[in-house]
Design brief:
This protein has 451 residues and is mainly alpha-helical. The chain has 15 helices and 15 strands. Strands 1-12-13 form a 3-stranded antiparallel beta sheet. Strands 2-3 form a two-stranded antiparallel sheet. Strands 4-5 form a two-stranded antiparallel sheet.
């Protein structure tokens, strides 16, 4: 494989206004959709041949959502929407009362699992399309499924109980009691916000505003608990019960209950969630200005840590490639994990998400164009140069992706949240064409092609 050259790069950030290459080839967003968005991508290191039959998952949902954004930009590409519709229909009952794991029809929505809700974001565009086509059955199905998921989150999801720090915050998952991770904001509260934007007024003004307060609470809590003013960044996760066995990773000496490092993709999830939610949130809501201020704080912090030479960001944001895993590993309860000497590296999934957020934030008027367009353009140029590869078949792909990362729980002491873990953890491998980067790249490219 070879890295894409300057022609594709110039087409995105400086060339033709349409975002097309000089040889009139397809926009690079379409190239990625057709190479890896409609199929042939990894979903948590499992290869998926077709988007339509990947099954319900936050990674495949992210890819599907990005394909929808490409369709909205290029509506002549009806096959993009049809692929996402097939993905939704593969896992959604005809009445929209359940989302299941095909072909078993066992529920795909786990108990108090934020990840399982993220793919529900596709329902809103599918609902609108069904309405436009006069298909009342499909419209009812997609709206019912989205509403079922919103209610499951709002009314049934486990929360940090009254009297504890972070009261009312959604648990990341049942197996992570009283924990909130930055990742979760993109998965559940952002979905909740889109439902409120589309349908919240139907329940009356009081219910709508209360729900927006509930959504804002999730963002305000995690920002307060994880933001480091000196670095301008947020730590990956926080536990309200840092002393329990599932929170053994909460070793941060500076911020009580926090994990010790700034993981790039977790910041990408947070920045992405804020960008999307601020698009939908009523500006008159009492918490809007707080979320906007936090958003701008994060934008400034990430600008600070953008690599000057490459224009993109490292896996561990506050370090460069001179920092490596120490070769000794992490000792937990008499066992040693994460042994190795992998150096910190430029990471694509987070870099693509940051690029998407800067471009979209500028487009929405959330960020100052003069200050941040150079950041966005430099990032997009860096993404194209550092990460985009062309295969022997002429199709583009994307490399340098962190496959996965998490924190605990007690049954997995390897997930320590340390430098050693994020660089040498057994699940934190460097891979290519993983959906966690495919989706953000398509979204960033669509925004760049729209500027």
């Amino acid at each position: 494989m070879k890295y894409c050259g300057i022609i594709a790069l110039a087409a995105i950030v400086a060339g033709c206004g349409s975002g097309r290459m000089k040889d009139s080839a397809k926009p690079v967003s379409q190239q990625m959709v057709e190479a890896h968005g409609l199929g042939d991508f990894d979903c948590n290191r499992k290869h998926k041949e077709s988007l339509a039959t990947t099954g319900w998952d936050y990674v495949s949902g992210l890819v599907a959502s990005s394909v929808l954004k490409a369709y909205e930009k290029y509506p002549e590409k009806r096959e993009y929407l049809e692929a996402v519709k097939a993905f939704a229909d593969y896992s959604t009952s005809e009445t929209g009362d359940s989302v299941f794991k095909a072909p078993t029809r066992v529920s795909a929505l786990g108990e108090s699992n934020v990840d399982d809700l993220a793919a529900g974001k596709i329902y809103f565009a599918l609902y609108k399309d069904a309405v436009s086509r006069g298909d009342s059955a499909d419209a009812k199905k997609y709206k019912s499924a989205a509403t079922m998921m919103r209610n499951k989150l709002k009314y049934d999801h486990a929360r940090i109980p009254a009297g504890m720090p972070g009261e009312g915050g959604f648990w990341h998952k049942k197996q992570y009691p009283n924990q909130m991770w930055l990742d979760g904001l993109y998965m559940a509260p952002a979905f909740y916000a889109q439902w409120q934007h589309e349908f919240g007024s139907e329940l009356g003004e009081q219910d709508n505003m209360e729900s927006w307060s509930d959504i804002a609470l999730q963002f305000k809590t995690l920002h307060e608990m994880t933001f480091d003013e000196d670095k301008g960044l947020c730590y990956h996760g926080w536990s309200a019960t840092a002393g329990d066995e599932d929170s053994f990773w909460a070793t941060n000496q500076k911020k009580s209950g926090c994990s010790p490092e700034f993981w790039a993709r977790s910041m990408g999830w947070y920045f992405g969630a804020l960008t999307d939610v601020l698009e939908w949130m009523p500006k008159e809501h009492a918490d809007y200005q707080t979320l906007l201020a936090n958003y701008r704080t994060i934008a400034a912090g990430l600008k600070r840590w953008q690599d000057e030479e490459s224009g993109v960001w490292y896996q561990l944001l506050q370090y460069d490639s001179s920092v490596s895993a120490d070769g000794k590993g992490d000792a937990v309860d008499g066992e040693t994990y994460n042994i190795g000497t992998q150096a910190n590296y430029l990471e694509s999934s987070a870099s693509c998400m940051f690029t998407y957020c800067y471009y979209k934030g500028i487009r929405l008027g959330l960020l100052d164009r003069e200050e941040y367009m150079p950041v966005a353009d430099k990032a997009m140029a860096g993404v194209m140069k550092q990460f985009i590869i062309t295969g022997d078949d002429g199709k583009i792909g994307i490399g340098s992706i962190c496959a996965s990362a998490g924190l605990g729980p007690r049954k997995d002491h390897s997930r320590t949240g340390t430098i050693n873990y994020y660089l040498n953890g057994s699940d934190v491998v460097i891979t290519s064409n993983e959906g966690k980067a495919i989706g953000p790249f398509i979204m960033a490219a669509v925004e760049a092609e729209s500027k």
